[in-house]
Amino acid sequence: MTEIPSAMRLAADIRAGRTTAVIAVTAVIADIEVRDTRINSVTRIFGPAAVAAAEKIDRQIAAGDDPGPLAGVPFGVKDLFDVVDEVTTAGSVVLRESRPATHDATVVARLRAAGAIPVASLNMDEFAYGFATDNAHHGITRNPHDLARLAGGSSGGSAAAVAAGLMPFALGSDTNGSIRVPASLCGVWGLKPTFGTVPREGAYPFAASLDVVGPFAGTLEDLRLVYETMYGAAMPDLPPVGTLRVGRLGGWFANNVSEPLARAIDAVAAHLGGAETVQLPEVARARAASFLITAAEGGNLHLPRLRRHASQYDPATRDRLFAGALLPATTVIQAHRFRSWFRTQIHAAFRNVDVLIAPATVGEAPRIDQPTIVVDGQNVSARANLGLYTQPLSLAGVPILSAPLAGTGGLPLGLQLVAAPGREAALFAIAAELERAGLAGRVPLPAKGR
């Protein structure tokens, strides 16, 4: 097996009897065991439980029942979602002695109710703190487009598994860009929904005031179906693209962009009617505030365990968490005050536009042996700085769709589509138009990567 069909097509085939859920699930497990040895996107396979769930789906279909729109579709979860009877480790050995989950995370339960079957947990930066999926315990996840390059993080295992065609969709989380960055670097679709609208129960937290859970998918149709299932309701009808006003974020979001990505964004803006440039104030301070809030909340969450088990943490994660726990309260309070002000500025921008476009990363995926990106002429750590364009926007709690840019002639590049809270339908409308025009869409793997 080289690549699994889309979720919608596979579910249709299973419901129609052209294949079975057991065949689909066992094929995915076999494919992971063969091909993921090179990518390292999977940390654990839920083999017996997944096969048992598939057998149940097949029995329902044989009895004339409809298991749901995702009948028998295998999917993976970032290793911070509860899956019943499995230990949730959040990418760390620190939690390996925890009791198995007694319930699925809410979004996993909703996907099961729609017929989908969790088959594996997926690699991530330890406790979601990083942009590289360079995990001290499970190893580094490699980009399926070029195994010498990073997949991005912290949900890199999820993006890589979908990009490699191991599964049609996967779940991730996004605090400061952990869905958008790897989706961009791996050439797949990703969605960070409006903050607070998709339930996080059963997802191990990082920074609760910023955490959002969302999907990755190989097709835009799958992304929409999985998002609606996670959300618990269908989106309203997509608005006509001609009625949507599009703006292009400038300033901070135009600096440091690679030439191929700048050209791709120019083409997108031109196709959408020459999007006017929108300037947001104090973006550098917004990114700093995001850093501080994340560090403080993450450090506070982990401090009791750090006091007992510091040696079990990845040293890079441990040191950042300790630093966050030591931040003065006045500094954190000021960061939250600034966050409120900056959120107001972003929301105000949507009085004049419906969708903003911005780069997701500075360019293509960095090499593993040189994990840096160039910012203002300096080589800086990719693990800490790949969120250059995603972190500031996280403060506003707005929905952001990461669209893979096609036709660049090389490695994947990514575009952020940003809308006001609750306006996911506008994002999907613009994304569908870019896909129709051949400007966006899943970036195919090179022949040797299939």
TrEMBL record:
Keyword set includes Hydrolase: yes
Keywords recorded for this protein, A-Z: Hydrolase
Hydrolase as UniProt keyword: yes
Record-annotated Amidase domain positions: 25-427
Gene Ontology molecular function, alphabetical: hydrolase activity
Protein's recorded name: AtzE family amidohydrolase
Species, as recorded: Gluconacetobacter johannae
